[in-house]
Hints:
Blueprint: H1 3-24, H2 35-44, H3 46-80, H4 82-96, H5 104-111, H6 115-138, H7 143-151, H8 156-167, H9 169-193, H10 199-208, H11 212-240, H12 248-262
Amino acid sequence: MSAKTLRYLIIAALIVLWEVLPRTGAIPELFLPSLSSTLQAGWSDAGEYWHALLVTLYEVAIAMVIACGGGILAGAVVGSLPRPRVLIMPMVSSLYAVPLVILYPVFTVWLGIGPESKIAFAGLYGFLPTMLSTAAGIQTIDPQLLLAARSMGATLSQRVTRVVIPAAIPTVLSGLRVGGALVIVGVVVSEMLISPAGIGYLISRYRTILDSPHVFAGVLLVLAMAVAFNTLIKLIERHAAVWQVGTRAGRDVIAPSAVGQAA
Length: 263
């Protein structure tokens, strides 16, 4: 049995258990509503969930630009320059170890309870791992690539955008997966804390009235966003695999296969 088939069987078993256990009373419906009642709750209020999903997607999209775009550029610059790397990386690593959710009240004081505070908080939440992963990925780049770029007169911005980032893409995407997931978590959590709209707001509102089917309907939407983002990253990884030839790790992977073909 292949691993892919086994994964599908596990997912199917979890779906069946989700429906059967609450129906048979093994798990109280208050703790875990059946899958059918969850889907029915979401369908009956599809308009409300659709509007909330659009709000959340808007906030996630802008926060992704801040976290992923800014994190990649900042990590590329810091990782390329020895002195900033020595000065900045320890501070960023220490800040990443702090649970940033404690800073969300500060963002609400500065930016209010509207989407601005959620975007800023989620952007920072995903920025740190993306930056750290990008800076670490720079270390896997073949130094001969940078030397060749300098010898041809490439400026710092040209080396970063045309050599550093493309060659570090495999490692960057690993950080991008973590950073993007944290952006989604940051937006939803901030909506649950203080927000008049969004999926997190619906989850929090229905939780206060103990409406479990509607709560889990919101959770399913969050799960769908995370799965869609992970699928997108896997697609990008598949198309960006060619850039591994510019890294030490890529050479280690390609060299054995090349030897085998020559033999």
